[in-house]
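ok, trying the design again with the full structure, not the truncated one.
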């Protein structure tokens, strides 16, 4: 198919689905299996990036016999892709039809093919020269930063104090190279249409559900300005320690950030147990029949809900809700019914924790307000960080530009960015 690159996605290659499809049809299964077969025949990705990052393996793909013929391997992979879709059935078709632009459809097909076939057969759009060069530069900045040894943490975390003023942000914080990339340079919680970018605006009220160390909250605070507000939900003690230090380092932004030290759930006042640490911290209901614990300690927390928080803080509006809460997004949405119906905020919902979240979260939003449009983005070189954006129809729709000028604009943007980083690092040596 003829695919014109999106100039606002300077760090991304075209989704591999654009190579596989002659044209996009109106049938999800047809397009998905076409992409799966094309990838099985043509692709052989040389490196598994999660291993390079020291991350755990993903449960994607299927083992094929080492001595099997190419044709046999392709057939096994395509049948596995077909089985992969069976659980969702008509839900995948519904989601595909709801995607509001071509970029979203192509990226959805690419990510789902990755989850069906595994890393070896599907390169992600972010696996680009521009991304890797930027990561090398950010890693150099990270290496020069101060560690978190001065903070009273129960376990060490691999973060460094990084001064972002050298790259144009009036921010200093404890983070790491990829965190800086996907929170500040190329935020995963903004949707980059070919014409418009959907992101928090000056004066907006933003709910940051899953604030972790506070990087995204600081970015949102910079976006909304002094007249806006950011409400940050984070409950894990060590995360809060780093969060508070990052707020202390940035008083010009933290003055309009409010921390809510509770997990968001459908029902406020539920006692929950903490499991995990850092960005992957999860919560579980301790006892569904009890609303309190006899002796709560630091590993137990009590829930709130978005509707309850909006009432407690007397918020007169909510413009933007971001959720990255390790699979608890559906429960949090159920506790935000009134807020969504009343204020119709833009939603940035992480769906990668559970496969069913890809369609169940937008289906739930649609059940509350059928006027929402849906978009899809993905912000890593592996299977994490897939986000569905729900945007009310009275927000200006992006207009797709189909012009060769777009391609040249992207080249210029990448070139300028690279030279800018080189100059910055040279001046700071």
């Amino acid at each position: 198919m003829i695919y014109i690159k999106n100039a606002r996605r300077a760090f991304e290659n075209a989704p591999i689905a654009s190579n596989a499809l002659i044209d996009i049809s109106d049938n999800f299964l047809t397009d998905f299996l076409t992409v799966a077969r094309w990838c099985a025949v043509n692709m052989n990705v040389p490196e598994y990036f999660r291993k390079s990052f020291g991350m755990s393996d993903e449960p994607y793909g299927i083992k094929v016999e080492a001595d099997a013929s190419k044709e046999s391997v392709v057939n096994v992979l395509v049948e596995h892709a077909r089985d992969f879709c069976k659980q969702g059935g008509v839900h995948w078709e519904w989601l595909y039809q709801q995607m509001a632009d071509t970029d979203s459809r192509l990226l959805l097909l690419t990510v789902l093919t990755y989850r069906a076939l595994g890393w070896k057969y599907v390169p992600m759009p972010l696996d680009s020269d521009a991304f890797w060069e930027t990561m090398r530069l950010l890693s150099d900045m990270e290496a020069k930063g101060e560690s978190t040894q001065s903070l009273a943490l129960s376990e060490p975390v691999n973060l460094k104090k990084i001064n972002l003023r050298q790259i144009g942000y009036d921010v200093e914080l404890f983070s790491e190279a990829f965190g800086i990339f996907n929170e500040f340079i190329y935020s995963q919680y903004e949707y980059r249409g070919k014409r418009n970018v959907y992101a928090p605006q000056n004066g907006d009220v933003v709910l940051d559900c899953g604030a972790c160390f506070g990087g995204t909250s600081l970015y949102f605070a910079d976006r909304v300005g002094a007249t806006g507000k950011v409400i940050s939900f984070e409950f894990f003690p060590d995360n809060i320690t780093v969060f508070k230090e990052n707020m202390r380092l940035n008083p010009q932004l933290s003055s309009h950030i409010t921390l809510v030290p509770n997990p968001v759930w459908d029902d406020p006042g539920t006692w929950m147990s903490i499991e995990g640490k850092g960005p992957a911290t999860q919560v579980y209901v301790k006892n569904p029949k009890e609303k309190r614990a006899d002796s709560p300690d630091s590993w137990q927390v009590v829930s709130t809900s978005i509707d309850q928080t909006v009432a407690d803080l007397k918020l007169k509006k909510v413009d933007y809700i971001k959720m990255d809460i390790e699979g608890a997004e559906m429960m949090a949405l159920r506790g935000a019914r009134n807020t969504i119906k009343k204020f119709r905020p833009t939603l940035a919902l992480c769906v990668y924790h559970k496969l069913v979240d890809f369609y169940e979260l937008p289906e739930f939003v649609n059940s509350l307000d059928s006027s929402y449009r849906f978009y899809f983005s993905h912000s890593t070189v592996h299977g994490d960080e897939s986000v569905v954006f729900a945007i009310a129809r009275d927000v200006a729709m992006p207009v797709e530009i189909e012009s060769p000028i777009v391609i040249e604009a992207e080249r210029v943007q990448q070139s300028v960015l690279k030279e800018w980083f080189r100059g910055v690092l040279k001046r700071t040596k």
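Keeping the full-length input from now on. The radius of gyration is 22 Å.
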